[in-house]
Amino acid sequence: MPVWQRILEDINDPNFVIISAAEDTGGEAVAGPIFDAAKPTYVQVVDENHIISSAFHFVNVPSAAWVDEQGRIVRIDEGTYAKTHEIGEGDQKFQFGTDVYAPAVKDWAAKGAASEYVQPPAAVTDNIRELSADQQRADAAFRLGNLFRYHGRKEKAERYWDMAQSLNPDSINFVRQNLTLSDEGSAGETFRKMVGDYAKQGKDYYRPLDLK
Known about the structure:
By secondary structure, this protein is of the alpha+beta class. Helix content is 47%, strand content 13%.
């Protein structure tokens, strides 16, 4: 978040708006202190049921969509770490994020539709992942799990969360949400192993960025 705050200040244009959504079933109690500590001046919302991920078909966080002045999506579904990060040690050490995304955002803010990073409508459409029937059922099961958790029905909540992961095993959102409820958290050993396994299998943790 501090990096995005600096990007917002660098752009320094009242017509450029960042909306940051925390996808967290813990709600304001969990996400609020993180926002408060970062002290961002951009818009912050808490999405307990991952409605935004479902609407844009995101499978991991952070992801982003660029929306222009007419409300049209001009870029979508990309990992949005604003700079390269490195965590872990030894065999568990890995890098994530990129140093090219932030300059692209700044270019778009300055040039608008003339930016080379704006994708044509056909490319945007192709980049929106289609949800299968099972994946749609997974979203419904996930929200049912959240509802049962809210009412203190832990066993039922876990049953529906497990169902969601089974129906949509490619949703890293579901995996990491469950990890937030564990002692190690969403970026602990299980998460690092998962990313390492993705790399070994040649799978994309994030869809490759179409940026130079």
